[in-house]
Design goal:
The protein has about 100 residues and is of the alpha+beta class. It contains 1 helix and 6 strands, in the order βββαβββ. The strands form 2 sheets. It has a 4-stranded antiparallel beta sheet, with no helix packed on it.
């Protein structure tokens, strides 16, 4: 099994597809807060394809304090996570910003 490589996104253009720049935390599903989220975005070298790989990725993310996350992919796979600064929940709904 190829090891997972995670790199925290530093905001550098070109590291992720432009489409993802407008995708952001929208609302805390627990307290309905809609602002002040602490976000983390990771570039990842592969998407898990088995239960064993899913478990391994979950373990790696838990070591970084991330319990809830989403995996998204276009050209480069991403892991997105956010924490509500109001209630501390990581149960966050993400959506594209309206233009």
């Amino acid at each position: 099994m190829k090891k997972f490589e995670l790199k925290e996104f530093n905001g550098k253009m070109g590291e992720i597809d432009r489409d993802w720049y407008d995708f952001s935390p929208f609302e805390c599903m627990d307290c309905k807060n809609s602002e002040g989220f602490q976000t983390k975005i990771f570039l990842i070298n592969k998407i898990p394809k088995s239960k064993d790989e899913e478990s391994e990725l979950k373990r790696i993310l838990l070591e970084r304090g991330i319990k809830e996350y989403g995996i998204f992919s276009s050209n480069k796979p991403l892991i997105l996570s956010a924490i509500c600064q109001k209630c501390g929940s990581d149960n966050i709904f993400w959506d594209f910003k309206k233009k």
